[in-house]
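Q: Got a minute? One more chain.
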Amino acid sequence: MADKIEGSSPAAGSQEEIAEKRREKRYDVPDAYRQYIKLRVKSGNEFVPAILGNFSRNGILFECPAAFSQGTHTECIVSISLLLSREIAFGIEVKYCYADHGSYIMGASIDTISDETWFDVFVEVHDFIVLRKSSG
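A: Always. Here it is, folded:
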């Protein structure tokens, strides 16, 4: 998915325009890490699995089987499973959504967080996985 996300252009603005608006570091989630980090997005009354492409303190990029309209507010749950399992819930507002090979690529801003320390925990887990994979 990372290749699809990086190589595709969102419907609203170019990748360069979107990257310019970002003020914080983006953390990519390569395929090898996805066994430890899972994303589910609420579509209607149920949560559907999604593939997390990258994240920052204020936004996420993901691939999902369901389409969302720009401006839609919905909920997400990130599950982290390594030594301890942890779920982090947060709300998003979809900024763009476009079809890509039978699924949808979305960029969203994070508008509510159930646990204010979620980002720090998430970054620590991300960095731990990177170190573990590169040393193993």
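A: The chain has one domain: 2-135.
Q: Perfect, thanks.
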